[in-house]
Recover the amino acids of this structure.
């Protein structure tokens, strides 16, 4: 189909076709934003941009920009501002097409297009199915380290937005954290699985060469915190940081 014919079809048949067309040429990425980890957000964004072969749209999920649609008191157990607001990703995508959500404490080592190409229409969301039970009770900046079934599954999600329409703002405001993070809002058979290399839990998962990892997740704390300056894979993050602030 030529570009001219494609544009005419999009105008004629509306936004459903428009989103399907956009998905072929651009990846929508939403990253959780917390002022305490602002530098992590920017370094993650840079790592995505530096390696992608496909145009990307990166949107921070920041509470300061969501005040008109999302009001929820902070829970003592939440360690970041986006603990719950991440589940607004389908709403912010108008429940159309696919989107990626990522925690900000990550570093992409691979072309994000390779993750995007894993989308499977039979699922509502796709993620790494971790079996992660941390033993400690605190993590970075003395934030609580909670333990629950399916921990870290929601830290990176491929979301098929039209199948996530239960995630309306009022539900995300009132549902329990456990119901949200354990995906009680969809049936289990709608949760697809992707390779663990796309959400490698630093300090928990078996140490591997970086060429076997697509995305590092500094889930307990990244090297941008003094306490974790020498954590595993700190050198990879520092390299990207230096490229981000001094690219020439």
């Amino acid at each position: 189909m030529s570009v001219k014919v494609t544009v005419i079809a999009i105008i004629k048949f509306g936004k459903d076709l428009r989103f399907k067309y956009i998905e072929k040429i651009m990846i929508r990425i939403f990253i959780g934003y917390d002022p305490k980890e602002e530098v992590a957000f920017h370094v993650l964004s840079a790592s995505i941009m530096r390696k992608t072969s496909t145009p990307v749209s990166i949107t921070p999920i920041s509470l300061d920009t969501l005040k008109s649609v999302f009001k929820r008191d902070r829970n003592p157990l939440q360690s970041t501002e986006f603990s719950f607001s991440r589940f607004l990703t389908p709403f912010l995508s108008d429940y159309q097409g696919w989107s990626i959500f990522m925690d900000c404490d990550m570093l992409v080592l691979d072309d994000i297009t390779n993750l995007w190409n894993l989308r499977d229409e039979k699922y509502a969301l796709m993620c790494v199915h971790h079996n992660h039970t941390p033993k400690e009770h605190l993590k970075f900046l003395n934030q609580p380290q909670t333990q629950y079934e399916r921990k870290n599954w929601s830290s990176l999600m491929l979301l098929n937005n039209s199948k996530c329409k239960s995630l309306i703002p009022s539900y995300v405001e009132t549902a329990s954290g456990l119901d949200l993070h354990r995906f009680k809002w969809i049936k289990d058979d709608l949760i697809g699985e992707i390779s663990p290399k796309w959400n490698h839990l630093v300090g928990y998962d078996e140490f591997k060469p970086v060429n076997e990892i697509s995305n590092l997740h500094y889930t307990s704390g990244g090297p941008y915190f003094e306490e974790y300056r020498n954590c595993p894979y700190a050198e990879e993050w520092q390299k990207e940081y230096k490229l981000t602030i001094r690219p020439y």
Summary: The mean pLDDT is 88.
